């Protein structure tokens, strides 16, 4: 296949670098260009070093769109609407985009997610919502391996999914207003999506199961303690003694099979206070008589760095995303971009846009994940189960911004 599909990036930070590294494993697409406030030159250099494409640095979103077949929105949550608005203006001005990719979470609120869906639909552009964990080969292989058992015994009834690490890399993630909350907004979206997908009967659409209720708790377990709040303030400028976000969230989403009426449960747990080796994704699923489990901290590769040698280790994060240690017995993942699903989500988006359709996960799908996340905040605030089949609750959610995302987290967390 020729490299005739031109992809552009808006944003050149952490995730852009990961996606560029995923492109090393994909044929038929080139990184044609990038527009970003910071980091564009370094990304372009990386792209040229690995033969990913010219990755021309453009001076505006419009200019980038005019030279690409699809663009990926890889910017912080608080500039999402603005950037997508600029992309849509470029399309209206004649840029022939086949699709737009957007990173998770689609919106910081239900209203914001819906607005993004509307913008893309009105512009007539196909969409891809990037939820990498659903594309993880481990998850897909587990589901495929268990398909015969599922057909014989019935679908999975319980899925548990967690993503945890010691805290994000950039200050804006910690700021509840700019990010849209804390760890529930940032990573709960992943875990809720994985459970929804795992529980979906084999072969059905990812939006087949209907979310009917959400029960959740949010808490500030580590970063609200005076000592760690000060450390965070010094490092990021965000003051968790005044405007905290949750560093721990857990809950259960109940789904209903619209054909059989069967109810199944997806449990999620997320934290920014997981002080182990680094990022851990832990997922399992259970059906009658069968099960699977994934733990990304288990690697076929271990390295050992003794105290005497540790001083020579310059960058602990070469071992694992969000790594916290550079000595001792370290779990090392040789290909994180592949392990976490970045390769397969990109391949799916490019193949879908080439064929003139939405990716497996569209922005409409992303907006439903936002709805479940926000329902989880509402549940935690009200201390009750949120019934998504209740029209009044749905209306409340349409105009809802969590206390935490309003910068009023002290009222619910401290
Ligand atoms: N799927 C995942 O596992 C995963 C992991 C990390 C981040 N993300 C998501 O990716 C998005 C970006 O996160 P990140 O970690 O790369 O952030 P980052 O802060 O590391 O990088 C953000 C990039 O966007 C650029 N930018 C900021 N404002 C801009 C604007 N108005 N116009 C153009 N460029 C602008 C910055 O200059 C920078 O290059 C977030 O929505 C985040 O939730 C997803």
Biggest sheet, spatial arrangement of strands: 12-11-7-10-9-8-15
Based on DSSP secondary structure assignment, what is the total number of beta strands?
15
The number of distinct structural domains comes to 2
> What's the oligomerization state?
single chain
Bound heterogens, unique: nicotinamide-adenine-dinucleotide
Strand content: 15-25%
In the CATH hierarchy, what is the class of the largest domain? Alpha Beta
How much helical structure, as a percent, in the residues? 25-40%
Q: What structural class do you assign from the helix and strand content? A: alpha/beta
Cα Rg? 21 Å
Largest sheet, if any?
7 strands, mixed
So what's the overall shape?
globular
Can you identify the CATH superfamily of the largest domain?
Dihydrodipicolinate Reductase, domain 2
- Tell me, rounded to a whole number, the average pLDDT: 96
Distance between the termini: 56 Å
Q: Tell me the number of helical segments per DSSP (H or I, 4 or more residues long).
A: 16
Detail the poorly predicted runs. Answer: none
CATH topology of the largest domain: Dihydrodipicolinate Reductase, domain 2
CATH A-level architecture of the largest domain: 2-Layer Sandwich
